[in-house]
């Protein structure tokens, strides 16, 4: 049957019908008073979502663009930075800092493990001359399904005193609690196609006053991504360049939906979907790639041993029209990833688990009890 696709990857994520319909409206002038009112509402709701009193800046870019903007606006060539890397996206930020001539020190962990906050603490405490200018990390490492301990790492950065903390929250913002002002996070980047429930194309950067002070002396060249220009425009409910007007319509609607649901309910829903998915995989005899104490709320990575990961994805797509994500880089063909981020409900999770059971049976995975996965997921939903 056509048009029955179910997108269960960590991005792009499913888009609510209300958001799609909002985007179908005729565009209006981006310098008009009417559009300025839309921007004002969006800006207020972005501050609510980010739990900050600072303006959240919106750029026309992916999450990678938002993170690059966050890095280049507050640092200078030759600055010493720490990049925590335990997956594809941690590695990407190190590649970006290398590209802009920063002195990059990588703190790594095995893919599938969380970054050890103690290693970062030791590195920061050893920096008695306060040469380290930033610590950059991915909160939810999408490639492996690992959630790093941002709160503890941030505490160590704050004890250092000089360094900024720059956070890739692309798949954690809108899925887990990130109280930006309470924790004093300096630069937080995210993207529309994840927890925001909007198609790709918008990036968001929250910036602290401490980071803005660093901006005054930062020397990396920039133009389109000069966040100072975005700050001035945002204060006037405008944009420095032409925005994707129809995506902004969608963002306006999505943020209204999120505000109606409430932050605590959003976080609880992602927690339930994560626990249910992981319980189902364990009940089906499928090894989880990330440990329970560091499980992403956006995506669950599964490392099957009795069936091929790519065959699982192929059957799920061809027979059930369900898209799962594959492994990246050295994990290609070794894992599959189930996204449960954004506009994903309990029904979606149960549908995926039931379809996966049928897929596993077709592929010869015998070490499971029929219905065990669905029962395990349903039990989590019933108890929470």
Number of helices: 14
SS content category = alpha/beta
Tell me the fraction of residues in β-strands, as a range. 15-25%
Oligomer: single chain
Sheet with most strands: 7 strands, mixed
Can you give the mean pLDDT? 97
Alpha-carbon distance between the two ends: 34 Å
Architecture of the largest domain, CATH level 2? 3-Layer(aba) Sandwich
Counted up, domains total 2
Share of helical residues: 40-55%
CATH class of the largest domain: Alpha Beta
Poorly predicted runs are none
Q: In sequence order, what are the helices and strands, one letter per element?
A: EHHEHEHEHEEEHEHEEHHHHEHEEHH
Radius of gyration: 21 Å
CATH topology name of the largest domain, in short, is Aspartate Aminotransferase, domain 2
Overall number of strands: 13
Description:
- The protein has helices at residues 17-23, 33-50, 63-72, 88-99, 117-126, 150-160, 180-183, 209-215, 227-235, 245-261, 263-283, 309-320, 346-362, 372-383; strands at residues 6-8, 56-60, 80-85, 103-108, 132-138, 140-141, 146-147, 164-168, 187-191, 202-207, 299-302, 322-326, 336-339.
- Helix 4 (88-99) links the parallel strand 3 and strand 4 (103-108).
- With 384 residues, it is α/β, with parallel strands linked by helices.
- It is 43% helix and 16% strand.
- The protein has 14 helices and 13 strands.
- It has 2 domains: 17-260, 3-Layer(aba) Sandwich (Aspartate Aminotransferase, domain 2); 263-383, Aspartate Aminotransferase, domain 1 (Alpha-Beta Complex), CATH 3.90.1150.
- It is globular, with a radius of gyration of 21 Å.
- The strands form 3 sheets. It has a 7-stranded mixed sheet with strand order 2-10-9-8-5-3-4, sandwiched between helices.
């Amino acid at each position: 049957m056509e048009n029955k696709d179910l997108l269960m990857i960590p991005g792009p994520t499913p888009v609510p019908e209300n958001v799609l319909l909002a985007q179908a409206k005729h565009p209006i002038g981006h310098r008009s008073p009417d559009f300025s009112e839309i921007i004002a509402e969006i800006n207020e709701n972005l501050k609510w979502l980010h739990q900050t009193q600072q303006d959240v800046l919106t750029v026309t870019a992916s999450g990678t663009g938002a993170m690059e903007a966050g890095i280049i606006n507050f640092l200078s060539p030759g600055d010493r930075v720490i990049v925590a890397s335990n997956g594809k996206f941690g590695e990407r930020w190190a590649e970006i800092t290398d590209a802009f001539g920063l002195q990059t020190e990588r703190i790594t962990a095995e893919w599938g493990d969380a970054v050890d906050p103690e290693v970062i603490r030791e590195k920061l405490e050893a920096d008695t001359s306060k040469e380290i200018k930033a610590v950059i990390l991915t909160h939810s490492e999408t490639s492996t399904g690992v959630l790093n301990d941002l709160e503890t790492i941030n505490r160590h950065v704050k004890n250092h005193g000089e360094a900024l903390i720059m956070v890739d929250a692309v798949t954690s913002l809108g899925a887990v609690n990130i109280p930006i002002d309470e924790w004093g996070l300096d630069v937080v980047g995210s993207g529309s196609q994840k927890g925001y429930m909007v198609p790709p194309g918008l990036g968001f950067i929250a910036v602290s006053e401490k980071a803005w002070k660093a901006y005054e002396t930062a020397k990396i060249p920039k133009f389109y991504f000069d966040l100072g220009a975005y700050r001035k425009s945002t204060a006037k409910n405008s944009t420095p360049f032409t925005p994707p007007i129809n995506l902004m319509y969608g963002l306006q609607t999505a943020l209204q939906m999120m505000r109606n649901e409430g932050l605590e309910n959003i976080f609880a829903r992602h927690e339930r979907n994560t626990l249910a998915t992981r319980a189902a995989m364990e009940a089906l005899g499928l090894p989880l790639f990330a440990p329970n104490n560091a499980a992403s709320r956006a995506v669950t990575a599964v490392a099957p041993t009795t069936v091929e990961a790519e065959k699982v994805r192929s059957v799920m797509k061809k027979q059930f029209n369900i898209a799962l994500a594959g492994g990246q880089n050295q994990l290609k063909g070794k894992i599959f990833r189930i996204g449960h981020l954004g506009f994903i409900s309990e029904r979606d999770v149960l549908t995926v688990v039931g379809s996966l059971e049928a897929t596993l049976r077709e592929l010869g995975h015998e070490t499971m009890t029929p219905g065990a996965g669905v029962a395990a997921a349903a039990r989590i939903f019933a108890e929470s």
